[in-house]
Write a structure and sequence with these properties.
Number of helices: 5
Number of strands: 0
Oligomer: single chain
Low-confidence stretches: none
Shape: elongated
Structural class: mainly alpha
Mean pLDDT: 90
CATH topology: Helix Hairpins
CATH class: Mainly Alpha
Strand content: under 5%
Length: 115
């Protein structure tokens, strides 16, 4: 069920990016797509009844490998969040500059004003 939710979020973001003409709505669509991918990566590493991936001396290796949660998707998501924040900051700053120059966020109007 959770995988379906991440797919639905990805499709909502893709719809916003491909059909909207407002730059702010396109940026929001990109962020929704980013959140959907992060959710999917977290779901890949999830294990029902899992334990932290820290092995203690009294824990057998077989038990550790069977019940521990995979930490790699979590590390990838943390990296993805930081990169996504940088992309968001850059895209918002570009949108502000476009608005200062053209006075609108509409892509069709910007193309018309450009000449």
């Amino acid at each position: 069920m959770e995988y379906i939710l991440s797919f639905v979020l990805l499709m909502i973001g893709l719809y916003c990016v491909t059909t909207k003409k407002n730059i702010v709505k396109i940026i929001i669509g990109l962020n929704i797509m980013e959140y959907a991918i992060n959710l999917f990566l977290i779901l890949i590493g999830y294990r029902q009844g899992g334990i932290a991936p820290i092995r203690t001396p009294d824990m057998s290796l077989a038990y550790f490998l069977r019940y521990s949660v995979d930490p790699l998707p979590q590390a990838l998501v943390v990296t993805s969040i930081v990169i996504g924040f940088g992309v968001l900051a850059l895209s918002v700053s570009m949108a502000i500059r476009i608005y200062e120059r053209y006075g609108t966020f509409d892509i069709n109007e910007i193309k018309r004003l450009k000449g």
